[in-house]
Design a protein that fits this description.
- By secondary structure, this protein is of the alpha+beta class.
- It has 11 helices and 7 strands.
- A hairpin with a 2-residue loop joins strand 1 and strand 2.
- Helix 9 packs parallel to helix 10.
- The chain is elongated.
- About 0% of the residues have low confidence.
């Protein structure tokens, strides 16, 4: 007895009941079409004409499943009311034809089964009221327009239990239908393992690309704005002092601003999936220009470069350039116009970078930020290198070592 009544108290059954009632609600336009439009077109409701009418209704129902909004609605209902059996399925406008056809079968099952059980659900309150009143009124239901007569009093005391039993049976039917539709959703809408792996790979590639672009934007724009800030202060000082360095400072601001705009346009174009113009990748061969721009900002850079920078693999050269750029930016932001030591040593299959500068004498603590060093660490991890950063006495030091296959 307990097992029979257990589904009555199961919240999951009622969630799936809502899913079935939603299917019944979705069936209403098709029922209206069947009873209003079909009789006007098909004169007879028997034999081949009836079959043809049912076929027309099913064809209309099938056609509506190819509307993207219908797929989104059905997909949301499946996820929310059937406990998300197919979380990776795509229901949008870009779904493949195979997915669309399987979805159509799922939608037809949902609407047809939901229509039947929704009709039974609507009848249940009427049956309960008629059954409870039958021993007192002597009537239950109608045959045509004639009430069905039953005995009154104790002779019909068993009648109220019939709709109660019917309600229990309906609950079991809902439970079975919900389970069946959930299994159908897994079978029809589920993504095969190999497709799920492909989806995850595409998502991972997309996230990696967005993270890379965000890091590129942080490095290039951050460096440019640091140069602009320093040069603007130098220009203001030069104007007040009446010196001849204003043109030089404004030229540095213009150059940094143009470079920042180019990088910003490139990165935003990639983020919007627009066909952005090709931008030559940054590499260590451009290091002299980067050092010169930093010197114009007021930082004295003592640079020592050993080895042929052009021999570096493109990926290593690009990442190393961004690491040096971030080191120079950090000096501009947090140390000011100081003497910075930069060492770049390229050997067979290895590059060592060392950036060292005095800690600002004011001792003011750095507030906010932290993305630059984290970005350097991510770039070094990507290439399997070594990285350290921290205070060494009265100096701040960043050391990076990257190695690669010498034959690359």
């Amino acid at each position: 007895m307990g097992g029979t009544l257990l589904p009555v108290f199961d919240r999951l059954v009622y969630r799936r009941w809502v899913f079935l009632i939603l299917g019944g609600a979705l069936s209403f336009p098709y029922v209206l079409f069947a009873f209003v439009v079909i009789p006007a077109v098909v004169p007879s409701v028997a034999g081949p004409a009836l079959v043809a009418g049912i076929g027309v209704v099913l064809a209309v129902m099938l056609a509506t499943t190819f509307i993207p909004a219908v797929r989104v609605l059905e997909g949301t209902a499946v996820r929310e009311l059937l406990d998300d059996p197919v979380p990776d399925t795509t229901f949008g406008a870009t779904a493949s034809w195979r997915v669309r056809l399987r979805f159509s079968a799922m939608f037809l099952l949902h609407v047809l089964i939901g229509a039947v059980l929704s009709f039974c659900t609507l009848l249940l309150p009427v049956m309960l009221v008629s059954g409870v009143a039958a021993p007192f009124t002597g009537q239950i239901g109608l045959i045509g327009n004639t009430p069905l007569q039953v005995p009154t009093g104790l002779a019909s005391a068993w009648i109220p239990f019939v709709p109660v039993l019917g309600a229990v049976v309906l609950v079991h039917a809902v439970r079975l239908a919900g389970w069946a539709l959930r299994r159908a959703a897994v079978t029809l809408l589920g993504v095969p393992p190999w497709e799920r792996i492909e989806q995850l790979e595409r998502q991972a590639e997309h996230l990696i690309e967005r993270n890379r672009l965000a890091q590129e934007l942080h490095d290039s724009i951050g460096h440019a704005l640091s140069v602009v800030t320093m040069q603007a202060g130098a220009a203001r000082f030069a104007l007040s002092a009446g010196t001849q360095h204003v043109e030089e400072a404004l030229g540095a601001i213009e150059s940094a601003g143009r470079a920042a705009l180019d990088d910003l346009d490139y990165v935003l174009g990639r983020l919007r999936d627009e066909p952005a113009r090709e931008k030559p990748p940054s590499s260590l061969t451009q290091l002299p220009h980067l050092i010169e721009a930093t010197r114009l900002a007021g930082v004295t850079v003592d640079a020592h470069i050993d080895g042929d920078l052009a021999r570096l693999p493109a990926t290593v050269s690009r990442q190393a350039y961004r690491i040096v750029q971030e080191c120079l930016t950090n000096v501009l932001r947090h140390a000011g116009q100081v003497l910075m030591e930069l060492r770049v040593e390229v050997t067979d299959g290895r590059i060592d970078l060392l950036a060292r500068n005095p800690v600002r004498a004011t001792g003011a603590r750095r507030t906010g930020g932290g993305r630059g060093l984290r970005g350097i660490a991510e770039r070094v991890d990507l290439l399997g290198g070594q990285f350290s950063a921290g205070r060494q006495g009265d100096r701040w030091e960043v050391a990076v070592s990257l190695a690669w296959d010498g034959g690359a």
